[in-house]
Amino acid sequence: MTVPAESSQSPVPQPTIEGVLADPAASLWLKHALRSALERDPVDAANDAEMLLRLLDDRLRALLEQPASQPREAI
């Protein structure tokens, strides 16, 4: 049995604020939300971002649990 060698690929770099704002592929919604968050208290902005993540994740899971025959309506 052979043991796979460690990947020689370098890890994917984490996105940065500057990188996202400069990225033409980043959505306008994301850029607007990021700019707005940068003007706020960082703790409040992070707490709100975590809440938004939870809410959107719950919505996504609910949509994915719907039967394929049922229309995917906004929840």
The number of helical runs is 3
3D shape = extended
> How many β strands by DSSP?
0
Rg: 19 Å
Chain-averaged pLDDT? 89
Helical amount:
40-55%
Question: Which structural traits does this protein have?
Answer:
extended; 75 residues; mainly alpha
Quick structural gist:
Helix content is 55%, strand content 0%. With 75 residues, it is mostly helical. The mean pLDDT is 89.
Would you kindly provide a written description of the structure presented here, covering whatever features stand out?
With about 80 residues, this protein is mainly alpha-helical. It is built from 3 helices and no strands. The mean pLDDT is about 90.
Topology diagram in text:
Blueprint: H1 17-22, H2 28-38, H3 42-65
